Amino acid sequence: MNILLDTHVLIWCFFSAKKIPDDIKEMITDPENNIFYSVLSVWEIALKHGKRPDQMPVAPERIIKECRRTGFMQLSFCNDHVLAESGLDRMLLSQAISENMVFITNDLKMKAYDVPRMILF
Question: CA geometry: angle at 89 spanning 12 and 62, to 5°?
């Protein structure tokens, strides 16, 4: 299964694993699953870290290093992702839909979207 992690879940994987339920951890660590992070997550982390490093102490370079270390794969952003769900204002979700991936998030705002293959915990 191909899984795309929301930005906060990506950060939690490396720095706050206790926030992730055991069943989700099992999905992420299952060698049969391919775990992806979006270049948009790196961009989001870079913006937040640059503006408020006290609130986002994790530098984007650190996230990239951890992703490489664990074998998480980078998902680039392309026109197909924009066009896949032009009505969505959540680009990571649009990427997951376009790439037929499972999207894992803890963002309660995502409940507003009726999207199959989204795991909200």
Answer: 30
